[in-house]
Amino acid sequence: MSVAHRNHKSHFTHSTHFTHAKRAAFTLAEVLITLGIIGIVAAMTIPTLVQNYQKKLFETKVQYTYSLLSNVVQRSVAENGDINTWDYGTSYHSDDVEKFVKKYFEPYFYVVESGKSISYPTRYYYTKIKNGVTITWQFDGKFDVGDFPSAIYAIGSFNGNTSSFYDESRDYSHRDFMMTIMPYNNKLDFFSWSGNSRELVINNDTYGCNKNIVPYKRLQCGKLLQIDNFKIKDDYPW
Predict the structure, then answer these.
(1) Residue 139 is part of which domain span?
(2) pTM for this prediction
């Protein structure tokens, strides 16, 4: 083979390789289109992923808090006797609530922080537990001096809310959940005004867990979550 022929062949091979490489590369327009598609897909899927994570976190924290406090109540009853025999003090003041919680509940779980409510210092006492949930404690009943309460409220909050359980800043389907201890039954339960059936818990006109009730009045959403084994279903007003 002549030198000229070999040089020609070498040039041809180099040119072919360069042409193929050039064809394999993406143009700027193609890159921008691809990035745009990725951005659209991300914008469509990320909110759903974030919402699913928030739902799972809510389910887990509510279940853990309920399990923890249920165990606390059982241990306290075993050591201190039936709840209707406990010392509630002589008023519904936060001083009495604090004394009550410190005596009958706090010895049985780890307290990260505690104190009186900033918004209602004469009514509520709060404790923060290790999973980040803040529990606001309140007596409820006749409000007569010397007459022990008909219920003890334990209102859980994800964002440190220690206001009244009926404050408009509450959201009982996203950030808050309401538990009760009735002196006559010796156990912790979720607030239920209308009974324990799923239909009644959802459709109650005052405290039902549905989208037609304002968030701070959806007091029965914790009960619905319990009925559904701490899984948020499609009809839950998230």
Answers:
(1) 46-227
(2) 0.80
